[in-house]
Amino acid sequence: MTRLLFWIALIILVVMAIRSKLRAAVAARGFDPHAGQGGAAPAGGTRPQARVEEVERMTSCAHCGLYFPASEAVHQGGQDYCCEAHARQPAASRIE
Question: Could you name the domain of life of the organism this protein comes from (predicted)?
């Protein structure tokens, strides 16, 4: 019986050590898994600045209806198209 308790305690200690090492590695990279969820700030004071990526506006092709970034649009006749081939074809009449 004591042998079984020893192995259970050993497994628990190994799991706790691994979790501790993983948390330390994540903290060293400056990643906060609770950012944006009301998590507490790190003990060092201020929370590290998160990288904010700019969100690009999406548009749809007037011919096929595919959504894609507006920066990649082919503009013709006041409408957006996904490629030159669709810009040469008439716009489809879709019900949206």
Answer: Bacteria
Q: What is the DSSP string of 23-80?
A: HHHHHHHT--TTTTTTPPPPTTSSPPPPPPPPPPPEEE-TTT--EEEGGGPEEETTEE
What pLDDT score does 50 carry?
Answer: 62
Residue 68 CA to residue 56 CA, distance in Å, equals 10
> Bridge partners of 81?
74
Mean per-residue pLDDT, 51-79: 87
Distance CA 42, CA 47 (A): 6
Average pLDDT, the chain: 80
pLDDT digits (tens, 9 = 90+) for 7-29: 999 999 999 999 999 988 888 77
Which of 56, 92, 88 shows the shortest CA–CA distance to 72?
56
Token pair for residue 60? Answer: 């749809």
Higher pLDDT, 70 or 48: 70
